[in-house]
Design a protein that fits this description.
- By secondary structure, this protein is an all-alpha fold.
- It has helices at residues 11-19, 51-64, 68-79.
- It has a domain at 45-84.
- The N and C termini lie far apart (49 Å).
Length: 84
Amino acid sequence: MTPQIPQTDSIKELADFWQSHDLTDLDAELEEVIEPVFVPQTSVLEVPLTSEQVTALRRLAELRGVNAAALVQEWVSHNLQPIQ
């Protein structure tokens, strides 16, 4: 009997399963997935900025080769420490 791929979100369970099974033995169960399987958990926070601040932010981001949102995310990640 062919083993079945576990229906779980547990990384450990899946890792354990794939340590002892070969992908080629499960061809009949495989299906192509187009959308991301693991989506990072994020939240959106609106921050009011003046038009001058937005312009400056976009210029700085462009100079660094990123978009404005990526630059703000970098600043937040760099400057905020998780609260213990």
